[in-house]
Every structure is written in C-alpha cells, then in structure tokens.
Amino acid sequence: MTNLEDLIRDNKHISILKTAGKLGDSMNISVYLVGGYVRDLLLGKQLDDIDIMVDKDSFKYSKALSIKLNVNKTIDFDKFLTSRIPYKECEIEISNARKEEYKEDSRKPINVQKTTINEDLIRRDFTINTLAMSLNSDNFGELIDPFNGVNDLNSGLIITPADPTITFIDDPLRMLRAIRFSAQLEFIINDDTKNSITKNKDRLKIVSQERITAEIIKILKCNKPSIAFYLLKELDLLNILFPELNVMSGVETINNKGHKDVFIHTLEVVDNSAKLSEKMEIRFAALVHDIAKPNTKRFDQKKGWTFHGHDEIGRRMLYKISKRMKLANELRDYLMLLTKLHLRPIALAKKNISDKAIRRLMFEAGDHIDDLMILCRADITTKNEYKIKKYINNFERVEELMEDVSLRDEMKAFKSPVDGHVIMETFNIKEGKAIGLIKDDVENAILDEEIDNNYDAAFNYMMKIKDKYL
Q1: Cα separation of 379 and 262, whole Å?
Q2: How far is CA 419 from the centre of its chain?
Q3: How far apart are alpha carbons 458 and 105 in whole angstroms?
C-alpha cells in the first residue's frame, strides 16, 4: 500500500479504480491511471473525469469494464485506440499506450500505433501530465514518474518531457495549454519552453478557431486570468489570437497629459471580476469592455485624452470578433450588451440619480443587470483611495435602488402597450425593420415619462411619430 492509495481512498472514484485494476488482473492487462487526474490528485484539487491507459487490448478491456460498471456501452474511436464509457458520475476514457505521427499542416495524428507506457508518456504535453499510477492489485497506487513530473509539480514548473520544438510542432495547441496551465496552477513556464513557444507561434494557424476559443474560455475560468494574458503578450501570441487586445498596450503623452495603459487596466478589471464572480461570461465582458478604446482615442487640448463612443463602437466591433472567434450567439449578444452599457451605471453614480434613469438602465440590461453591476464594480481600478471611497459610496446608492424588488418586477414585465401586431394592422404593413423602430420609440417615450404607460397614450404617440419610420 502507498500514500497515493490513501489519497484515492477519500475520493468518490475509488470503487471505479479498484474495479478497473481487478479487471486488468483477470485479463492479464496492465492498467494505469494517467495524466491530469494523477496531477490533480497530488495537488489536492477537485477530480473530474477519469483517464485510464492499458498496455494492450483497449477495446476488449473497455467493453469488459463497461459491463462491470453496469453501463454496458462504450463509444469507440478506432483510429485513436481510445474508448469512452459514459458512466453516470463521470466520463471514463480508456486508451492503449500509443505513439502518434502528425502531418505538417494538421494537429490531428495520421498514424497511431500501440507502444510502451514510457513511449506513451513522453509524447504528452508537459512533465506534470506524464504521471501515471498503477491500478493492478499487486502494486495498486504505485507511481510511475519517468520524467520527474513530481519534482516539477513541487517546483511549480511547466516543462515539456521531450524537445519542446517537437512537442509544439506535433500539436501547436499545447502552446496555449502551457499558458493556460501557468495561469490555472500559477506555475512558471521554463525558459526553453517559452522560447520554443515564441519560435513556433505561427504553427497556431493550423489550430481550429473553436479549440483556440475553448482555451481562452478556460483561461477566463482561472482564479487570476491576467497571468495567461500577460504571457500571451510576452510570447507574441496575442497578436495572432486576439489582435484587438494586443493593440491596447502603451501610454501616449501630449502636453504632459497621459492616459491609462488600456491593456493593463483591462486585465485589472478581468482579475477584479474573477474575485467578484465565478461566472465566465462576466470575465469575458471585462476582457472586451474597452475593446474600442484604441480606435476612439483622441487628444483634446482642454480635456486631454478622450475615448468618446468606445462603448457603442465596441459593441459593433464585438459582432465581427464573435463571428471570427465562433462564439455562441447568446454569448455574443451578452458581450455586446454589457459593452454597450458598461459606462451607464458609472455615469449614474457620478450625478443625481433619477428613478427614470434607473428604470431605463434596468430595462435595457434586462436579466443581466446584476452582471452589469458586477462588471462596473470591477472597473474601479484607480489607486486614489479618496476617489475609490467616494465612487464606491455613490455606486452603492445605485445598487440599492436597483435592488428594489417591485421595480425589478416592473421592468421585467415592461413592454410597449402597442405590440408588433397592432403596428402591422394599423399601418397595413408586413414584418420589417420599421416595426421594431416604432415599438422602440414608444417604449422610450414611456421610459422617459413623456407619455403614460397605457394603450391610448401609446397609440396616439405612435400615430404622431409614424412618418419618421414609414
């Protein structure tokens, strides 16, 4: 028995691992727990999906294990010598010890062959992920560590087990994984690995946008995402992956008047939002809320540096950025909305707050009003303690007004008394842009308290403004 078994004993997966090992015994197959599971086990982190490696007959073994676990089903990937068991508590992946060959223009292996455990482990991305643990009964819990992964784990280092150039040429996504692990684990990437990332950065062009976006989202889920974005900048990857962020850096001074470094400010906001919420979407909004500042930067002799319209222009930019990054439409619309509105609570906090202004903001933000307020609180990055105190006091007054339950219910239920059907029937028109414009105009008039919130007032107002749109 080993200390590792003691570590596993407290885990809900222990019965699965014991069953997997005993099955290997009966089939004369060596069975290992591998990769991230072992790494996280040693770090004392939350354990999720299970990765198992066997030295032979992976498909036969997977089917037998699925029966033992009463799943009776495997999803086989013949080309990769891998199977997945859709166990109710977690995904269980079983693969043969294997080595792979790659084409120059693709990160997908073209030739997968069975091999030894050591040859399998050396093809993995980083030494901290080359750890394996035997599950067979005679040496259950025995650690296999041929590339000193435990030392690197204890030292907090990200190092490739093989020549980093080979590692990154085979699969360029590993460059992003190195940066993500650095932020996720707060480890340091060693110099040889960093130099190789910069040298091979153009290989990222063969990685699909979906995989790149997935890594960026994983980075945003880290406790301190800025670690990764500073590394992306340092290693010259940001210009390839997210050029709009790359151009944020730098401070320009005219007549002794400078401005914040927008890149540094943005990452401070991202980290602040990470402290305030675990919600990835808020962190993403923090990352892009000032995306248009480089495009809108102007110098005014009296006011100094201005960024007029960066909220609305940022909203428009995000439509194209989201398309390029292949973001889901729901996330795209969320980022566009929060970017458009991110200055509004700040403006309210700086001047006299009216019920009308609160209602309008709550109506426009809809279900995302709480997220917007978190983003705006995260946007406070001044180092002036007096300004922080004054600003926070005003900001909290805005939040208190927005916590009015009846007002929230009113804004959720609010809609124009004249809907699209009424507009189409009254003016004998078909669906189109004009209907939305008329409806928005009526709603705005009600929110601005120009007219009462009832059908007659709304209908009469509609008749007055119809010529603007028809």
Answers
A1: 12
A2: 37
A3: 61
Backbone angles phi, psi at 51, to 5 degrees: -110, 125
Quick one: which H or E segment has residue 174?
A: helix 173-185
Counting DSSP H helices and E strands in the chain, the numbers are 26, 13
**Of 224, 299, 317, nearest to 259 (Cα)?**
299
Measured in whole angstroms, the distance separating CA 62 from the mean position of its chain's CA atoms is 33
pTM of this prediction? 0.85
In whole angstroms, give the CA distance from residue 206 to residue 125.
18
Core vs surface per residue 202-213: b (16+ CB within 10 A) or e: ebbebbeeeebb
Contact present, 373 and 392 (Cβ < 8 Å): no
Give the pair of three-digit tokens for residue 5. 């078994």
Is 17 exposed, middle or buried, given 0-12, 13-18 or 19+ CB atoms closer than 10 A?
Answer: buried
**Do residues 285 and 334 lie in contact, with contact meaning Cβ atoms separated by under 8 Å?**
yes
| Cα–Cα distance, 55 to 113 (Å, whole number) | 12
State CA 145 to chain mean position distance: 32
* Helix, coil or strand: residue 259: coil
Distance separating alpha carbons of residues 342 and 315, to the nearest angstrom:
10
Please give the DSSP secondary-structure letter assigned to residue 190.
P
- DSSP for 5-67, written as a single string: HHHHHTSTTHHHHHHHHHHHHHHT--EEEETHHHHHHHHTPPP-SEEEEESS-HHHHHHHHHH
- For the CA atoms of 239, 164, 183, 284, the dihedral, rounded to the nearest 10 degrees, stands at 30
Q: pLDDT tens across 292-319, in order? A: 999 998 988 888 888 989 999 999 999 9
pLDDT-derived band at 1, boundaries 50, 70, 90: very low
Q: What band does 236 get if pLDDT is binned at 50, 70 and 90?
A: very high
